[in-house]
Amino acid sequence: MTESKTDLQYRLITSRPQWWLGAMLFALHYALAWGIEDWLARAMLLVHFGLFLIWQSARRGERSFERRQALMIVAGGLLFVAWNNWWLTAAWLALLFALMGGSLLGSQQARHRMAAILAAIYLLSLLLVWVVPHLFADQNFDPGLTMLVQYGLQVLPVLIVFMPVPVAGKFMPPVGDLIYGLILFLLVTGLVLVSFVVKQVSQGNYAFALAQSLIVMALPLMTLSWLWNPRSGFLGFGRLLSRYLMSLGLPFERWVKGLADLAEREREPARFLALALRDMCELPWLAGLAWRAPHGSGELGARSRHQAEYSFQDLTLTFHTKWTLTPALLLHLKLLTQMLGHFYEAKRREEEQRHTAYTRAVYETGARLTHDVKNLLQALRTLCTAAEVSGADQAAALQELIKRQLPQIAQRLSTTLEKLRESRPEAAVMVDAAAWWGALKQRYAHGEAEFAAAAAPAGHTVPGELFDSVAENLLQNALAKAQQHAEVRISVSFEPAAGGSLAICDTGNAMPKEVAERLFGAPVPSLSGLGIGLYQAAKHAAQLGYKLTLVDNRDGRVCFELERA
């Protein structure tokens, strides 16, 4: 693709900004070093202003210069050329020096910083050695000094032009700092004026007057620099000024404390935001504000022509102030938005966590009760199966089985319904261990499980609901595995002593490792139903002081055990 003429010019200007800086200084040098009275010097001064425009465009990396700024600079240059004198020249050199010095702090590349330093040294030398002495009518110039200014100072622009620049990337230095540039301009202007006054009053040598001026200005500056950041434990003017700017129109610590107190009292994000914004509107410099948030939007107070908008995540605030927004006030508005945004987002997260906890509690309660109902349904199906396969000679035994099982099923169903009405957990209902073991064997008398219990004295009890839930879940999972593989055998062993211990094992395939690791810690989706019931049973066991563990998990032996923790 062919490069356009505009792009070529833009690349030529922005690729080597030190060339334009050196050319600008050369034009200024030839406009001042041999006098400013003839028209050649005025023409070179006009060239200097043109190169200044190009250099400004190059240092900012802009494709075009604003027409208003260009017209102002051109008009100022024409007036400068028309009414050129040494006082205007001194003011222009002081302004250029301030512009160079103000851009030094933000420069990142050492070579470009060095070019700016050389330019600042050249401008300050030309101002103090050549321009200021021309302000005195009786000043005589030594030929050696004149030769040094006319030919010696040219070395600095030559070094700037031929200074090597890194190949990678183009030079786009930041815009000069206004505060530092203004301070430098005032310092140089003060130095020139003090030197002029000392020279005129003392009628002495200019070099001695300049040295006196430097000493007089250096002492207050050294004192101020020490007071700005002292080493003796005092805060210093710098920190005091920062504290003043931070608390301009707003005691920051008090406002943050009030915001924290409000966050402790209010739980709802929408109400918290509304009250916090209402407190913010009481600030003396704030006329009103508008906000947009996920919970809604609105306005407080009155609008003004001075406004600023800041956003933090999903919160957007538009501030309307009573007067013009200063940099310190803009910093305040940004801090206010960030602080309020942090607290508001924390309130939203708390609300989401409460909803999540409530939903999880409902889910876990529903899942547990669903498994209880499923276990009861399975017990009823077992009784139906026993009734279907029993003959006339087994009618008495079947009737006895139904008499014993139906009241237990009715009691368990009643307990399940009570859980739906009660929000607090009930104490464990202890049942006789031998009676519970006999009832379990009767419910699965027609299954493929082998039951074995250790001999123990009478009087042992176990939490019937917990053991029923664990046994039903484990036996149903094992029976489902046995239906898929006929060779799978199931064994159930029970130890009534020491609070009871139940072990259910099968000879099927081992569970996957990732399923076994999460089996009791979280719901595990599975086609066979493993995970939810055992997760709930494990939590129920932990509440009653028991633990449900997978003691063996390998092909040919998968064994679960419920025992005292």
Please give a structural write-up.
The radius of gyration is 45 Å and the shape is rod-shaped. Strands 6-8-9-11-10 form a five-stranded mixed β-sheet, with helices on one face. A four-stranded antiparallel β-sheet has the order 2-1-4-3, with helices on one face. It contains 19 helices and eleven strands. It is of the alpha+beta class and 565 residues long.
Low-confidence stretches: 167-175
- Spatial strand sequence of the major β-sheet: 6-8-9-11-10
Mean pLDDT across residues? 77
Backbone structural class: alpha+beta
The proportion of strand residues reads 5-15%
Say how many strands there are.
Answer: 11
Q: What count of helical segments does DSSP give?
A: 19
Termini distance? 78 Å
Q: Assign an overall shape.
A: rod-shaped
> Which range best describes the helical content: under 10%, 10-25%, 25-40%, 40-55%, 55-70% or over 70%?
55-70%
What does the main sheet amount to? Answer: 5 strands, mixed
Rg: 45 Å
Instruction: Please trace the helix and strand order, writing H or E for each element.
Output: HHHHHHHHHHHHHEEEEHHEHEEHEEHHEE
